[in-house]
Amino acid sequence: MSLEKLGRYEITGMLGRGAMGIVYKARDPLIERMVAIKTISYAGLTSAEIEDFEQRFFREAKSAGRLNHPNIVTIYDVGHSDELAYIAMEYLSGCSLRTLLDSGVVLPYDRIVEIAAAIADGLGFAHANGVVHRDIKPANIMVLEDGAVKIADFGIAQLSGGALTMVGTALGSPKYMSPEQVLGNKADGRSDVFSLGAVVYEMLTGRAPFSGEDLNAILYQVLNSHPLPPSSHNPGIPKAFDRIVERALSKKSEERYQEAAKMAADLRSCPLVELGHLPASEALSADGHVGDQTVLIKRHDSPEEASRAKGFRGKHYLVPVVALVMLAGFGGYFLSAKAPAPQASLPTASSLADEVWQVQKGNETEAQPSATGERAAAAEAFSEFTAGSDLSADQLRFIELIIEHLTANGTMP
Fold first, then answer.
1. Catalytic pick among 121, 135, 266, 292
2. What pLDDT, on a 0 to 100 scale, did the predictor assign at position 13?
3. FRET label pair with 103: which of 143, 192, 303, 340, CA 20 to 30 Å apart?
4. CA–CA gap between residue 358 and residue 372 (Å, rounded)
């Protein structure tokens, strides 16, 4: 059965479907104007969780609704109906930056500066008013028919993130998330700066700075990889962009632009030399849109939770992670670390990699009973490796994230 009304709003059609709900086009009969309504479902929550959700929802919507800026989509109203909370916002004629990039259009450098600086202006205003977006990406940037640029979903990620942290999750789009968001740490304005840096990189080169075949590969890159300068993909890209993007994408938040306004100023002062541009349609990497969607990444909000989860995982889930770590480039490190003498029953890196590949690709072939002893031996050996190694906290946290993601999605054996 199709939805006909939400509060006083008369639904006229569906504009799209996102990770958190459906976006509708609707008519406000009181003011006689068209609006866009984004819905967030809280079906499945307990009464206590719904009460907490609604308190957070209206508090955060109130903060986001105060943002009156030409580069931010205006929020008109909030409400709830049955098992849906909704936000009514201005209806815009245009398309998302995601749609624009996917069309293969070649954006001139001065237009890239206009779009990026406008986003930075909107972010700077929001940050000054204590609001962090947390999910800046091409799909959340609207490019209007008159050329204006507006940030959509302002406050939505924070609203949903606030509600969903009740079950210990972080929200964001992996390709554009900052390292601190991936690690489940607090996001501030500098997290949005990082995400904007990733968007600028993609506008310049036609590819995201962090990509991969699956979520685990993307998360690893966000935490550890330093993308090549944009000009390495196309010599015609002005070098000034390299410096701006490098600073915005710094792994440490204190090394990024501390204010979005400063990034906007640097963008506008960029010397532009039109020497050609690689079309986005030709440069788009093979992974397509893996990591574009807003997803939930499970995290632990307390040392006690992490300790309990670690103890649970230790006996059953470490073997695929050992292989993933080896495949990710840690294998040489582990082999050089102090470790017990090899045992005949211990699986090789190759056999472990094959097992992980089968699990990840959905291979239905069941493991042989004899593998049980091998898994136990590998888990014990991996525990000794990590205990005696010099792995950083970020590297260990990345391993935990892989386990949590695979476990949450039911892809562990």
1. 135
2. 94
3. 192
4. 16
At 16-38, the pLDDT tens digits run: 886 667 899 999 999 999 999 98
pTM for the whole structure: 0.67
- DSSP track, 7-21: TTEEEEEEEEE-SS-
Instruction: Please say whether the beta carbons of 193 and 122 come within 8 A.
Output: no
Mean pLDDT of 257-276: 84
The confidence score (pLDDT) of residue 124 equals 97
| Helix, strand or coil, per DSSP, at residue 392 | coil
Q: DSSP code of 358?
A: H
What is the crossing angle of helices 349-360 and 318-325, to 10°? 110
Q: How far apart are CA 158 and CA 171, in angstroms?
A: 8
Is 77 a catalytic site residue?
no
DSSP assignment letter at 186: P
Q: Is 172 left (phi over 0), alpha (psi -120 to 50) or beta?
A: left
pLDDT tier at 85, thresholds 50, 70, 90: confident
Dist. CA 406–CA 413, nearest whole Å? 10
